[in-house]
Amino acid sequence: VQLAESGGGLAQPGGSLRLSCAASGFIFGDYSMSWARQAPGKGFEWVAAIKDDGDEIFYGDSVKGRFTISRDDAESTLYLQMNNLEPEDTGVYLCNARGVYWGQGTQVTVSS
Question: If pLDDT is split at 50, 70 and 90, which confidence band does 18 have?
Fold first, then answer.
């Protein structure tokens, strides 16, 4: 099983980034997927989740209206579109499959 995040980097406040999580080794379409983040000196924070059928989507209060989670089951890939980024969005972003499988994370830094 592998979850490989990509797309992180440096963005200015108000900017955008799109994260991807490529999955392999399990039946991606059978799993609810989510993104979480860990900021320096802060605890673990859940960001967004999408059910296996894609019909139900949930967001953390701090990202609601700015981030969009989506999935492409044919490509076994999870996405996180992040708009209007804020410095508080800085952290390591990790994707996970039903809380069972986790990626290594991708760093997002929002700074001017």
Answer: very high
Cα(52)–Cα(110) distance, integer angstroms = 30
Nearest to 19 by CA among 68, 86, 61, 84: 68
Alpha-carbon dihedral angle through residues 61, 77, 94, 101, given to the nearest 10 degrees: 110
CA distances for 31 relative to 38, 50, 86, angstroms: 22, 9, 30
Residue 16 to residue 26: CA distance in whole angstroms: 30
User: 11 Cβ partners below 8 Å, 6+ apart?
Assistant: 17, 85, 108, 109, 110
List, edge to edge, every strand of the sheet that includes 77-82.
2-6, 17-24, 77-82, 67-72
pLDDT digits (tens, 9 = 90+) for 56-96: 999 999 999 999 999 999 999 999 999 999 999 999 999 99
Give the angle 36-87-91 at the CA atoms, nearest 5°. Answer: 30
